[in-house]
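Hi support team,

I'm opening this ticket because the web form for multi-chain structure prediction keeps timing out on my end. I have pasted the exact lines I submitted so you can reproduce it. The total is 571 residues across two entries, so I didn't expect it to be a heavy job. Is there a limit I'm missing, or should I split the entries? Thanks in advance, R.K.
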Amino acid sequence: MKEYLLYMAQVHLNFRRAELESLADLGGISLDFASYDPESPFWVVQLESDDQARALVKRSILTKAVFEYWGSGPDYESLHRDVQSRPGYDERRIRVAQDSFKFEFENYHGKHKRDMSEKIRIIDGFQYLGLEGTIDLKKPKQMYTIIEEYGRINSQETTDEPLRLRFGRHVQTSDRSAMDLLDLKKRPYCGTTSFEAELSLVTANIAQVKPGTLMYDPFAGTGSFLVAGGHYGALVVGSDIDGRMIRGKGANANISANFKKYGMEGRFLDVLTMDFTHNSLRTGLPIDTIVCDPPYGIRESIKILGARDPEKFEGKEKVMIDGRPSYLNRDYIPTKKPYSLDALLDDLLQFACERLPLGGRLAFWMPTANGENLETVIPLHGNLELKYHCTQEFNKWARRLLVYINRGPNYHGPTNTGVKRSSKAFRDHYFSNANR
Amino acid sequence: MKVLTTNFLKCSVKACDVSNDNFPLQYEGAKCQLVQNENIEFNPEFMLNILERVEWDAVVRVVSELGNAGLPTTKPELPADADQLSEEDIIILRDLHTLLIQTSITEGEMKCRNCGHIYFIKNSIPNLLLPPHLA
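Hello R.K., no limit was hit. The queue was backed up. Here is the completed structure from your submission:
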């Protein structure tokens, strides 16, 4: 085993461990979280090889990069001592000594930007490494990275000098740049309910969306999770009861246009105008992953097919237009009725345990309370293991990502489906709070 | 709606689940407009994975309704590993890619063979919603 340094983004701290753990599991890598500090952007882990480090970090959104760990210290003198005294130093050094290289500086919390002469002075301090390859600033074979960690004095100021230095050989940059690539601001089609790129990609990672598998989003809206799933190589299919949403605004501003822009048209199967609770995906179709953001009732109320007042619709099926029942008209719009979030989530859990393979994951978002008294209870199904619940806080509310693993009928986990879990409609609470 | 999707859709009416006739839906070739998008890239490994999920009999049936009777009656036997694909295998996969992924039904109707309900495909999007008496 060798030591690797993970350099993580200092955002969405509640989601970082779940993402790393899921990617490790996906790559068959065992990671010991005993030394993991949820507050720190740095973590030294034991891994077998560079290949393993690459497999772990390649898809990560909340990690920035992974380095073969060479040493650390509070100042350069101690860093150099540590680098030269750590076990395996010579082996690490000699293996790459002939490769072309360059040095890189990373700066955590610091405002101080080192100029070229300062950088050269610091790089010269590493001469003892005996790197004999040529310096290549464009395509070096090896990148040696110095991460300077500055201290925070208050919310504005940071220390003039770094508090800690870490040094390593760059192994793999993460997929964090995908959040720029898929940024909503640059997306041909999105709407008010579109899920931002960063957390939709993190969701796809925690859900372990795999290349060449089938991912389904039953509340697709403008298709944010479909894009994230497609980015990780799955064939994606979505549905939504609201046809306007998935239709978009013409050929250049719809979900298919988004996939075209990202060069992954082949991974977009279709979006269907469909009520999730009256599902048309054939029984027996293996769905590998389900990822979604169900309607909470804030921006969009929860509706399913059926008449709110059945008496009003009695006999309507006999109405004829041009010799054909009106409900078989091409432009017929069926009536919908309100439904509760609890019932919808019960249906979702039941669907997941019927359709996912054993070990397959269901990941979805739901609102939670924000220090207020309103409780939304996490739904549980006996066949599904609740693997993660990660909370994202906003100003006036919060939501959580719930991730379940299908364990099959022999699992017998706790269950609370079929009961009324939340006492008050989330929508009422949200607006009463906002108007205060 | 891609031709592949016809292989994933059954009738939305729950009462039809007890019948074997709710999948595949029936496509009336004369009413279906087909469009081909040649820009969608071919990826043999991806196609292999997709084929695992396909009910071949339903592909044959639907594709012949859409006017192509040339498909073999049994699913082509292909190696599980993309590295072992022969040139002939690649040709088969490429044809299936053209048929299942590149070809879309932009306008059309699909009908449940059990209850007779008709669903429309409009602007390439199938509408599987139901009137209240069927929901």
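A quick check on our side: The CA atoms of residues 123 and 192 of chain A lie 49 Å apart. Let us know if the file doesn't open in your viewer.
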